[in-house]
Amino acid sequence: MKKNMKFPILVFDRGIDLIVLDYKFLMGDVRLINQAFRNVEVVDSLGNLYKIKNVIKDSGINLIESIKKVGLMVRLKPILEEDVTQINLIELQNKIVNYVSANPKKLKHLDDIQNLKETIYSTKNYEELIRIFN
Question: What is the pTM of this model?
Fold first, then answer.
């Protein structure tokens, strides 16, 4: 069953980075398609978990988004490793806290790490959790 991602989304980039995207659709710079969204996990605002193996270009250059984002932005179509599943909010909170604990220097600009963990655990829904990092 095909599901459309509900933005904002949270991208776990191979455990190296945590990225929030708040677009109307999945997009990226056409020059970076071979590097973007490879072997990543994406959680959308409804708690849907997408394990993306790769992406392919799904449309021509979007002029308005290219101007806004300063790049040659195109709509992307994800190639999934498996069907879309649901991730429990508590499981996602734990996953993010584990990331925060392993990468405190990357996130110290947001808040004291302990306060950040408490904020993560106090969220009531996926969108609220994702927007902490936006």
Answer: 0.86
